[in-house]
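ok trying this again, last paste got cut off
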Amino acid sequence: MDPLISTDDLTTALQGQAPPTLLDVRWSLLGPPGREAYAAGHLPGAVFVDLDAELAAEPGPAGRHPLPEPTDLEAVLRRAGVRADRPVVVYDADNGSAAARAWWLLRWAGHREVAVLDGGFAAWVAEDRPTTAERPRPVEGDFRVRAGSMPVIDADGAARLAREGTLLDARAPERYRGDVEPMDPRAGHVPGALNAPFAAHVTDSGRWRSAHELAEHFAALGVDGGGPIGAYCGSGVTACSVLLALEHAGVTDPQRPAALYAGSWSNWSADPDRPAATGEEVG
């Protein structure tokens, strides 16, 4: 299953005999809460899932968005109506960066049919497709979480990958360089990591670039899928956008996926013994 689905294809799928489960995961690092946007209007049948409270554990030494406990995630997904035998489509406001976190978590949990809506809620509304403020009451799902179905690395693994493979930093260039750091204890990046800003994966409208364009983008960074690849960001959210882009581009695939450094910079920078590189050079 391609990690992206168009508005046309989703409309067709929703009219089928076994429509996909829809999850609304609108979220912004600086707010306002996505639940407010959901209450104002969402795709018919979509269930809101809170990225901060339900797709992550409590912030702490492991980072600002640690992976949730498998039992907690399973309860969330079942309440949202997720079934093992039915596809899941997730969407956010527009650029897919938050939806990619849900996409990756479902894949990590063992679900095989998950896609992100290309262009998100903004694309859906721009095409005058139906929305509603009515909250559905989904039948409880039966999905069983099988944690570990996607690779995860810790800080030591990220340090090795930056030297022995390819580690991609999904943050904006100014955070990668260490010019600014609005969220975490120290500025800079993991020594050896390459900057691959998640914003480069989409157009100004929030639609994802084509597989060909993304393949060229990663090739220009020196990423061709010839060795192990991993990604990180500030807290393990937008890095999932890199992982999705790599798969959409054909650089990786479900049989050889890239790894997520789930703690990301919020975990790395909190350890004073971990070095931080700054500037344009990888370090």
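PB: full thing came through this time. The CA atoms of residues 26 and 32 lie 10 Å apart.
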